[in-house]
Design goal:
mainly alpha
C-alpha cells in the first residue's frame, strides 16, 4: 500500500465519483493530488482561481461567488 501511494498516480476523479463533476473541479483536484509539491498549487489564490473564484480586491481575503456551473 505504501509503495502504491508513493509511486502511482491517484485514480482519476471522474472515475471515482458517483456523480458528474465540472471539468475545472476535476482538474483542480488532480493538481492538488500530484506527487511532487512543485506540481501542486502554490497558493490558495491559485486554487481559487482554478475553481473560478476571483478576488474582489487585492487587499481582502474574501472571494466572490464562483461563476454558475450550470448545475
Amino acid at each position: 500500500v505504501l509503495n502504491k501511494h508513493a509511486n502511482e498516480e491517484p485514480v482519476a476523479v471522474a472515475a471515482a465519483a458517483k456523480q458528474e463533476i465540472p471539468q475545472n473541479v476535476q482538474d483542480a483536484i488532480e493538481k492538488c493530488l500530484r506527487k511532487r509539491p512543485a506540481d501542486r498549487f502554490q497558493t490558495m489564490k491559485e486554487l481559487g482561481k482554478a475553481l473560478g473564484y476571483e478576488h474582489e480586491e487585492e487587499s481582502t481575503n474574501e472571494l466572490t461567488e464562483p461563476p454558475n456551473q450550470n448545475r
